[in-house]
Specification:
mainly beta; 8-stranded antiparallel barrel; two-stranded antiparallel sheet; globular
């Protein structure tokens, strides 16, 4: 009986934490307002964000990024889906940021950065 309970918990636990596997860039299309970010899911002090990410035609543009009392827009960079994850080019580099989609529906999305930070978006 104990083995059955543990097996059931392991299956349930893995389902709760299963990441969303992207199939194509079309799944990201749209305008997403970044509401908050956290270092970990249990972080008690989320950082309020003001930027908006616009995914369109294989490019992502980040708008309204606060910097030194003003705001700026980042030029569009390429993005793609690789192995079910979101791969976003870094400006002026051959490198990229890699994000895992933790949760996504028609109105909300949570991304996890390759270094563990979480980004909570609302669709506009």
């Amino acid at each position: 009986n104990l083995a059955t309970v543990l097996l059931g918990l392991s299956i349930f636990g893995s389902a709760v934490y299963a990441d969303v596997t992207l199939q194509s860039t079309a799944e990201m299309e749209g305008t997403w307002k970044l509401q908050t970010s956290k270092n970990t899911l249990t972080d008690k002090d989320p950082v309020t964000r003001e930027d908006t990410w616009v995914f369109k035609d294989g490019k992502v543009t980040i708008l309204h990024i606060p910097r030194e009392g003003t705001y700026y827009d980042q030029p569009p960079v390429a993005y793609e889906v690789e192995d079910g994850k979101l791969k976003v080019a870094i400006i002026g580099s051959s490198r990229f940021d890699l994000f895992t989609v933790v949760e996504k529906d028609d109105k909300n999305m949570t991304l996890k950065g390759k270094y563990g930070g979480y980004y909570f978006f609302e669709k506009k």
